[in-house]
Amino acid sequence: MKILGVETSCDECAAAVVEDGQKVLSSVVATQIPWHEPWNGVVPEIASRMHTEWITGVVKEALSRAGLSPENLDGVAATARPGLLGSLLVGLSFSKSFAWARRLPFLAVDHMLAHLYAPRLDAGKNAEGPAGAPPVAYPFLGLLVSGGHTIICRADDFDRVTVLGATIDDAVGEAFDKVAKHYAFGYPGGAVIDRLADGGDSEAFRFPLPNLHKGEHRYDVSYSGLKTAVINQLEQFRVKTRGTDEAADIAASFRKTAVEILLRPLFRAAEDTGLSTIVAGGGVAANSLLRSRLAARRDLRCVFPPPEFCGDNGAMIAGLGFQYLSRGETSSLTVTASARVAGFKRRYP
């Protein structure tokens, strides 16, 4: 069964064809980074406009690389939530029309669930696992980290996910972008800080960790305090004299604290649930320190998608869509987009 997947939740215009929910026949991701770089962040109006201009060509390229015509497809899946509303509507509207015109089953999916599904694509090709490794078995802990979301969850099936913890304010990816923008490190912030931090001293600054002591927040995270400390109160947290590369020291110290904020509640969740497998997804899952810290835990199996499937992509959408379709489920063509999902962000206290 061959499924076309379309993803336009933010600034990546992506399409892919996946066979039987696993074999990636093609994956095309058109990045908008050059259009957003002058503003050091995603401009929603520009993002939706670029999707409108690119979506037809991106889908045609995905079909061409797969060596298929629309008549060879068995279904179409598209991201319906969460994300930038204008961007979501472009991909969703295109995909519904594409499916309707060809009388194909249509699936509207949650792209955060798709991130958890990504390691199941092309099983055996995981960067963190040996060749021929089986797909990740349920249940497992999920760590979803991106510019818009920071979520710790328990996954019991591809569509049965319980949110254990989430951010009460900013997402981790947003914090990376805002710090990079303030210090003019470059864009996108996550990748730039990760590279810059490798040459810095992570002990140059001792930034504060959040203390979520009120209510049921054992697995929640917060990044507003760290962002404020790095941008507005830098000298208060300096513990070493100015080094030869001040920018690298800031980046390294920030990265270390940002990753620690994630790992503290994640490891608590692993201890409390007894689950020893962790699946990470989202753009921040490509962070080298996060990967190395998780790999150092020999008592845990930490699974990352290949780097090309960490960020937003159409293959994970198609793979997830196959699972619904193989169960006999389809979506109504009246379904619409939703910018947010209840439970993906917490209130404090």
Feature tags:
single chain; 349 residues; alpha/beta; Nucleotidyltransferase, domain 5; 2 domains; five-stranded mixed β-sheet; 10 helices; 10 strands; 37% helix; 18% strand; globular
H-E order: EEEHHEHEHEEEHHHHEHEH
- CATH architectural arrangement of the largest domain: 2-Layer Sandwich
Q: Name the structural class.
A: alpha/beta
| Strand portion | 15-25%
Largest sheet: 5 strands, mixed
Q: Could you tell me how far the N terminus lies from the C terminus, measured between alpha carbons in angstroms? A: 47 Å
- Low-confidence blocks of residues: 123-133
The tally of helices reads 10
CATH class of the largest domain: Alpha Beta
At the third CATH level, what is the topology name of the largest domain? Nucleotidyltransferase, domain 5
Please, how many domains?
2
Number of strands: 10
Radius of gyration: 20 Å
Describe this structure in words.
The protein has 349 residues and is α/β, with parallel strands linked by helices. The chain has 2 domains: 139 residues, ATPase, nucleotide binding domain (Nucleotidyltransferase, domain 5, 2-Layer Sandwich); 166 residues, ATPase, nucleotide binding domain (Nucleotidyltransferase, domain 5), CATH 3.30.420.40. It is 37% helix and 18% strand. The strands form 2 sheets. It has a 5-stranded mixed beta sheet with strand order 3-2-1-4-5, with helices on both faces. It has a 5-stranded mixed beta sheet with strand order 8-7-6-9-10, sandwiched between helices. α2 runs parallel beside α3 and α5 runs antiparallel to α8. The chain is globular. About 3% of the residues have low confidence.
